[in-house]
Amino acid sequence: MKTLKYIKLAMAALAVSMTVTSCMDDDWNDPTGDTAPYGNNNLQETNVVTIAELKDMYDYALSEQTDTAKITEDIQIKARVTGNDVGGNIYNQIAVDDGTGGILICINRGGLWGYLPVGQEILVSLKDLYIGTYGNQPQIGTPYTNSSGYTSPSRMNHTLWLEHVKLIGTADPSAVEPIEFDISKLNDDEYMDENCGRLMTIKGVTLPQANGTRTFAPEHEATSGNAVNRSVNGSTRLVVRTSTYADFAGTAMPEGQLDITGIFTRYRDTWQILMRQDSDFKVSE
User: Fold this and answer.
1) What is the DSSP letter of 135?
2) Residues 132-173: pLDDT tens digits?
3) Are 83 and 94 in contact (CB under 8 A)?
4) H helix intervals, 109-264
5) Which of 75, 137, 205, 241 keeps 20 to 30 A from 253, CA to CA?
6) CB atoms within 10 A of CB 224
7) Coil, helix or strand for 96?
8) β-bridge mates for residue 156, sequence order
9) Segment 99-118, tens digit of pLDDT
10) Residues 14, 262: Cα–Cα separation, whole Å
11) In DSSP terms, which residues pair with 143 in a beta bridge?
């Protein structure tokens, strides 16, 4: 029995060694570090479309929660990561933006921030992935059908994702600047269509539920998705949405006027601000 146990341990160690070696082969062949150890380094930049163009191409799949479409064209997007799971508030997703618009990419993996930090530029091959909406929020992934029969793009297998992405250079956080949210356009549907999924900052707002002790996301207040919505300026159409698993879920909401930064997603006609970490909110100057 002991012999069998040792054989199993040796085989497990060998498997781990082979996995690590296979993942790092590019590094051994490229000691300068110019080749990324993650993703598909064989991807070449061809047929790149903007995110705005992509949305126009598949507008039928992004309207009124109707369709989820398989991308059959051999096209790519090139964008920078603007949001990830570093603070635990964005789950199995990254947000990317190329200057023409933003979109969410759904990936069944935790710890994405480790190799997809904010500012990392990526090239994504879209052929055979799916595009559609969840609650009218455009996103890319693989199809999932819920119990009501509604299909949306959901988390793709991580192995599949690595076949479709190429990391370009090193992350440059300074290349990612939030757009200031125009609160006068809160009820402007066209503005929501153009900007949902983008990194934005809203300035000089209040959280009416803040009282010095109430936190962003206590478990007993969680609704669907293990998250808590906090109204901004008393609006029913603009909320800060925080997961009970976020690092700052237990942080007391600050009183007074605030500047809040995050990925501005939508759920139907409601703006949802997904802060990425606790540095995404501060007292207004």
Assistant:
1) T
2) 999 999 999 999 998 888 899 999 999 999 999 999 999 999
3) yes
4) 158-164, 189-195
5) 137
6) 5
7) strand
8) 107
9) 999 999 999 999 999 999 99
10) 43
11) 153
